[in-house]
C-alpha cells in the first residue's frame, strides 16, 4: 500500500512541477461500485449493498486534451442481520482522462483509474484491514460548463467510483 501511495505522489509531483497547467477539483456521487460487485469483503452472501460512493479528486491538464490526478473514494456497508459488523471502503487511485470532443460548453471524455481499496471491517470489539486492487473504466463522460469556474458532469463506467457517477468540478 505504501508503494502505491508513493508512486501516486511521485507521478502527481512530477506532472505538477513539470509546467504550469490548469487544475480542477472534483466531487461526485457514484452508484453501485466495484466493492459491491467484486466481493471486497472476503466472501459471505449476507452483506448489504453499499449506499454508493463519495468521490473527491484533483486533476491536472498535462497535455492538450489529457488530464491526470489522484482521487479518494469512500463507501460503507454492513452485514445483514449483524448491524455491529460494518465494512468501510477507502479507495485511492490515479486517474487519467482524455477529452474526445470539446466545444465552448460541453466536453465528452473517457477516463481510466487504478489504485488500491482498503477495506476496514469492524465486528464486536475487533477490526481488521484488507487491501484490494481498485480500478475505474469510464468510456463515456460528459461535462457541461456552467461558468468559467464551475462544471457539472456525468459518467457511465464501472469501478470503485461507481457505475453511474454525477458531480461537479471547480476549475482553478
Automatic annotation (TrEMBL):
<protein>
    <submittedName>
        <fullName>Outer membrane beta-barrel protein</fullName>
    </submittedName>
</protein>
<feature type="signal peptide">
    <location>
        <begin position="1"/>
        <end position="20"/>
    </location>
</feature>
<keyword id="KW-0732">Signal</keyword>
<dbReference type="InterPro" id="IPR011250">
    <property type="entry name" value="OMP/PagP_B-barrel"/>
</dbReference>
<dbReference type="Pfam" id="PF13505">
    <property type="entry name" value="OMP_b-brl"/>
</dbReference>
<dbReference type="InterPro" id="IPR027385">
    <property type="entry name" value="Beta-barrel_OMP"/>
</dbReference>
<feature type="domain" description="Outer membrane protein beta-barrel">
    <location>
        <begin position="8"/>
        <end position="155"/>
    </location>
</feature>
Amino acid at each position: 500500500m505504501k508503494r502505491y501511495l508513493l508512486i501516486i505522489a511521485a507521478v502527481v509531483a512530477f506532472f505538477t512541477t513539470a509546467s504550469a497547467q490548469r487544475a480542477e477539483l472534483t466531487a461526485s456521487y457514484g452508484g453501485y461500485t466495484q466493492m459491491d460487485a467484486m466481493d471486497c469483503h472476503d466472501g459471505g452472501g449476507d452483506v448489504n449493498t453499499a449506499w454508493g460512493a463519495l468521490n473527491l479528486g484533483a486533476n491536472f491538464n498535462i497535455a492538450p486534451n489529457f488530464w491526470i490526478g489522484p482521487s479518494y473514494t469512500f463507501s460503507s456497508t454492513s452485514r445483514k442481520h449483524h448491524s455491529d459488523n460494518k465494512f468501510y471502503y477507502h479507495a485511492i487511485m490515479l486517474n487519467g482522462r482524455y477529452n474526445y470532443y470539446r466545444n465552448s460548453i460541453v466536453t465528452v471524455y473517457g477516463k481510466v483509474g487504478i489504485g488500491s481499496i482498503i477495506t476496514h471491517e469492524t465486528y464486536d470489539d475487533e477490526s481488521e484491514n484488507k487491501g484490494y486492487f481498485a480500478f475505474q473504466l469510464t468510456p463515456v463522460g460528459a461535462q457541461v460548463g456552467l461558468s468559467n469556474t464551475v462544471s457539472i458532469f456525468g459518467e457511465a463506467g464501472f469501478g470503485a467510483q461507481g457505475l453511474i457517477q454525477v458531480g461537479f468540478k471547480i476549475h482553478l
